[in-house]
User: Which sequence fits this backbone?
């Protein structure tokens, strides 16, 4: 699953790349972890807008010791579109968004000594990860990204990867049918377009 990604462009650069407006100031880091704020593009009154949201839909949790509610868990990856968390909104274009990403990371190595291996798209400083968003009582606006089976470039490190959209597919994701959503998740992004960067950076 994807639990870390980076955005190396400024909000102004993102707005230009996605033909969006950026109406607010942003307090988001270059690296995004589950539960943290990340930037997404969604449509408001027919216009694309760059907004900040929390990465992960809140999943209610209870203490194993007391049975009392504790801090929710952020569900930041969409694996099964038929699960209750996604089923009611996956077919609604109003709940679709684009997640700007420069690269995503997976953990690689032995337990306790895992490092970050980054994946990006060849000759592209930025790509769109298709996502769903909604309002939550716990964290306000939240988003999560659609996952698929890893292609040959990512599979040596992990068996899942984010769905990656080509730039001419943004409108289809934002306005398409539930059949389009399912088709995006089912396809395999070309492995020859993926660039892998192994690092010595600790995963933590």
Assistant:
């Amino acid at each position: 699953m994807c639990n870390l990604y980076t955005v190396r462009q400024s909000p102004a650069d993102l707005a230009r790349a996605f033909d969006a407006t950026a109406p607010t100031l942003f307090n988001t880091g270059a690296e995004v972890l589950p539960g943290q704020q990340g930037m997404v593009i969604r449509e408001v009154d027919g216009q694309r807008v760059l907004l900040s949201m929390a990465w992960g839909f809140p999943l209610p949790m209870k203490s194993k010791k007391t049975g009392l509610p504790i801090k929710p868990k952020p569900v930041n990856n969409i694996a099964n579109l038929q699960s209750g968390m996604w089923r009611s909104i996956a077919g609604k274009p109003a709940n679709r968004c684009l997640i700007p990403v420069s690269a995503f990371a997976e953990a690689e190595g032995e337990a306790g000594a895992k490092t970050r291996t980054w994946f990006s798209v060849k000759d592209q400083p930025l790509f769109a990860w298709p996502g769903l968003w909604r309002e939550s009582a716990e964290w306000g606006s939240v988003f999560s990204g659609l996952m698929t089976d890893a292609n040959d470039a990512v599979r040596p490190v992990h068996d899942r990867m984010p769905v990656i959209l080509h730039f001419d597919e943004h409108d289809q994701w934002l306005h398409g049918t539930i059949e389009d959503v399912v088709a995006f998740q089912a396809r395999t992004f070309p492995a020859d377009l993926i660039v892998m960067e192994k690092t010595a950076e600790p995963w933590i």
In short: Residues 88 and 197 are 37 Å apart (CA to CA). Residues 178-186 form the longest helix (9 residues). Helices lie at 11-17, 84-87, 170-175, 178-186.
